[in-house]
């Protein structure tokens, strides 16, 4: 006999599990289906983000940063470290523990909010009285009936043509988080968020890292001034970043991987590495949903077609997160999950795509929200900008981390904040103040007039806002 629910969510990544919890909070009966398994075969909800993405990469970034500090920076503080060693197994084990804590936390939240969890793969069986029939394939076969269905199946790493991931020599983000020994030479294809973060992890731990990027410019989505600073700093740290390359051939053997490419000057090059991380984007997970069987429309790239409210073309079927248009960001998926649950309940859920922050967790961190200076120039919009370096910030000096700056861009006439761009310590945390300001359509003057604690890194945001009006006080 089918089990009936008001809402069935397919996928328990950041968008799916949050949508399920919010729908349950709003009084609906909710089920969530997810196929991720841990090493013992048990459920591991949280999707790519929790299992092989955001969470484990941040754990490794933290561990590797401590290692680098101990080897290169503690001496500046009068701390002597002798006989420094690396227990990579323990480092990876700690990462795995952090992941499990998050998996278990989601299962606890499901129980707390009375969300029924099914461990397996969900697929549409067809339309029935009462809504949609959803088949669960996994440890226990189930047939569910849902008034509403939310598709939150996420995405998977894109492989190079004719070169599948073997997770031994040719690695996706999954394999790159579990390398058994520090490779002497590591290649990375793609200088995006994943490539830079994972490249930074293994460089800190001792790898010689070479990054190959097809785009002629570095971080084209970021503000050009910030991107140039990031390229300079990351290169100085030891990452070899090659832009404007065209890869012609990749061959993998039991011992190494050889990448042949043409560099920006048109010269033929060959790179031989022990391991190769491929981070050239992600593809939506829509296979296995039986989308064609029920008429769920996909676009030419495999994304579920939705309107601005995340409605599909099927009645009471919604889709959110990486499987639909928009940035592939966990926090974007979460906000869409909340909005859809509220829309199902008759409320007015809302997601503002103009104030979704982006973060790269390198060291220094890079974050931004809103428009870049180059986009405003292209648009022909009159603006004014102010910058403030962390070099002139007292807290940054005390931390011993003065790299980078804060940049605030405002409308030339109204002074409304149009974008904020940060490279520096704890940029991922500092950007939140700017997101709030932009949500309330604040002017740069508003941030400039707010009292910020001293000494704090946040004062750099205030000073950059002051600099928009050319009245910075500490630089």
From TrEMBL:
Cofactor(s) listed: FAD
Q: Please classify the protein's predominant subcellular localization into one broad category.
A: cytoplasm
Q: Which InterPro entries match?
A: Class-I_Pyr_Nuc-Dis_Oxidored, FAD/NAD-bd_sf, FAD/NAD-binding_dom, FAD/NAD-linked_Rdtase_dimer_sf, Lipoamide_DH, Pyr_nuc-diS_OxRdtase, Pyr_nucl-diS_OxRdtase_dimer
Question: How does the cofactor attach, per the note?
Answer: Binds 1 FAD per subunit.
Judged by the first EC level, this protein's enzyme class is: oxidoreductase
Family from the record: Belongs to the class-I pyridine nucleotide-disulfide oxidoreductase family.
Q: Where is the FAD/NAD(P)-binding domain?
A: 5-337
Where found in the cell?
Answer: Cytoplasm
Name the record gives this protein:
Dihydrolipoyl dehydrogenase
Instruction: Tell me which residues make up the Pyridine nucleotide-disulphide oxidoreductase dimerisation domain.
Output: 356-465
According to its UniProt record, which reaction does this protein catalyse?
Answer: N(6)-[(R)-dihydrolipoyl]-L-lysyl-[protein] + NAD(+) = N(6)-[(R)-lipoyl]-L-lysyl-[protein] + NADH + H(+)
- Does the record's keyword annotation contain Transmembrane? no
Q: Name one Pfam family in it.
A: Pyr_redox_dim
């Amino acid at each position: 006999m089918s089990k009936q629910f008001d809402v069935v969510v397919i996928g328990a990544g950041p968008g799916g599990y949050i949508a399920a919890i919010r729908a349950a909070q709003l009084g609906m009966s909710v089920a969530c289906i997810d196929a991720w398994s841990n090493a013992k075969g048990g459920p591991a909800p949280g999707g790519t983000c929790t299992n092989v993405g955001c969470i484990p990469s941040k754990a490794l970034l933290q561990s590797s940063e401590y290692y680098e500090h101990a080897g290169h920076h503690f001496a500046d503080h009068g701390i002597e470290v002798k006989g420094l060693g690396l227990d990579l197994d323990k480092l990876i084990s700690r990462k795995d523990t952090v992941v499990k804590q998050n998996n278990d936390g989601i299962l606890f939240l499901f129980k707390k909010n009375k969300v029924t969890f099914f461990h397996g793969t969900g697929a549409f069986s067809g339309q029935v009285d009462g809504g949609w029939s959803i088949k669960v394939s996994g440890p226990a076969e189930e047939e569910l009936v849902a008034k509403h269905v939310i598709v939150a199946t996420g995405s998977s790493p894109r492989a190079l043509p004719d070169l599948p991931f073997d997770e031994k020599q040719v690695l996706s983000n999954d394999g790159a988080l579990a390398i058994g020994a520090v490779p002497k030479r590591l290649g990375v294809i793609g200088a995006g968020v994943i490539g830079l973060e994972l490249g930074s992890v293994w460089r800190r731990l001792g790898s010689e890292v070479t990054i190959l990027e097809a785009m002629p410019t570095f971080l084209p989505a970021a503000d050009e001034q910030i991107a140039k600073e990031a390229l300079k700093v990351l290169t100085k740290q030891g990452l070899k970043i090659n832009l404007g390359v065209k890869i012609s051939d990749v061959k993998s053997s039991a011992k190494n991987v050889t990448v042949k490419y043409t560099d920006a000057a048109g010269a033929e090059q060959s790179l031989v590495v022990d391991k190769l991380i491929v981070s050239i984007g992600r593809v939506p997970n829509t296979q296995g949903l039986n989308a064609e069987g029920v008429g769920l429309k996909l676009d030419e790239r495999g994304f579920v077609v939705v309107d601005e409210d995340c409605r599909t073309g099927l009645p009471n079927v919604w889709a959110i997160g990486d499987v639909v248009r928009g940035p592939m960001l966990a926090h974007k998926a979460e906000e869409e999950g909340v909005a859809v649950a509220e829309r199902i309940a008759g409320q007015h859920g809302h997601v503002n795509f103009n104030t979704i922050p982006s973060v790269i967790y390198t060291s220094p961190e890079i974050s931004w929200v809103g428009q870049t200076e180059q986009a405003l120039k292209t648009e022909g919009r009159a603006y004014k900008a102010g910058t403030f370096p962390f070099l002139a910030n007292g807290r940054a000096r005390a931390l011993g981390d003065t790299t980078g700056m804060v940049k605030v861009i405002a409308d030339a006439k109204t002074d409304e904040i149009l974008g904020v761009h940060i490279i520096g310590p704890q940029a991922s945390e500092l950007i939140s103040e700017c997101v709030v300001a932009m949500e309330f359509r604040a002017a740069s003057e508003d941030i400039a007039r707010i009292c910020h604690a001293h000494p704090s890194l946040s004062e750099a945001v205030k000073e950059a806002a002051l600099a928009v009006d050319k009245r910075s006080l500490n630089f």
